[in-house]
């Protein structure tokens, strides 16, 4: 599949100067700081091709660009369209490839057929850069650092800088070790919540840390026994979900925990469904009609039961 993809891209670039020029503007995975933001008018069909018409293909650079910028299609399109569940593929969407990574992203991508849609996963302020995750951001800082290194960059987003400062605390390191070993998830969450209270962590800071330790939180919320044991000593599931989504945007795993929690508690009123619908739009975008999204949320419930 990868070989066929490369051949098609190279063939298209050799026949169309505009495609060649657009791809050549992308990062080859090196010298990120030296890259300039291109003029968006260059992507217009009416843009001038004369200045680029005599430049030949640099095969080595082109392969590096494809390696760094190609996107593998995830399974969301199958869930939205309700078909082609076994389908997968790889492609290059030039404009989407200019979107940077952040560990507190505000957008997601959704594949529909041959198209990729980029949509907001949480509220975006005017002038705020659009970012989406290159890898799983519901992981601890050390894991995210390792994954960023594999991509060839170091993430300097607000969340990573905040957690870097928190990691200097001895208790935080102990909580991380406990989470990595998978022992007593309730104890990990309880110590983290008590630590945030003593350290006076507020607002998005709570969401950042809860997102980093989402694994133990989700295990508690998905277990009736653990909820009975720890429920009164940790925040309500709805509060945790809201803070995580506010910090790192919507995520399908967070959505499933919310739907399961609402089902278990007997929720399902207008307010509960509106909350789930808002989170669902952050995961799947506004491309879906309301009834289709409601059906998809109900499927999440069935998969959990």
Describe what this molecule looks like in 3D.
This protein has 305 residues and is mainly alpha-helical. The chain folds into 2 domains: 2-98, no CATH class; 141-279, no CATH class. The protein is built from 16 helices and 4 strands. It has helices spanning 2-15, 17-24, 59-69, 76-81, 94-97, 141-151, 158-166, 170-181, 185-198, 204-212, 214-221, 224-230, 237-248, 252-264, 270-284, 290-304; strands spanning 71-72, 90-91, 107-112, 115-120. It has a two-stranded antiparallel ribbon. Helix 1 packs across helix 2, helix 8 packs antiparallel against helix 9 and helix 14 crosses helix 16 (290-304). It is globular.
The side-by-side strand order for the widest beta sheet comes to 1-2
Taken as a percent bin, the fraction of beta residues is 5-15%
Number of strands: 4
For the record, the count of structural domains works out to: 2
Calculate the terminal CA-CA distance, rounded to whole Å: 36 Å
Q: Please write the string of helix (H) and strand (E) elements.
A: HHHEHEHEEHHHHHHHHHHH
Given as residue ranges, the uncertain stretches (5+ residues, pLDDT < 50) are none
Please tally the helical runs, counting DSSP H or I stretches of 4 or more residues. 16
Structural class by SSE content? mainly alpha
InterPro entries: Gramillin-biosynth_MTr, SET_dom, SET_dom_sf
Protein name: SET domain-containing protein
Organism: Ilex paraguariensis (yerba mate)
Pfam families: SET (PF00856)
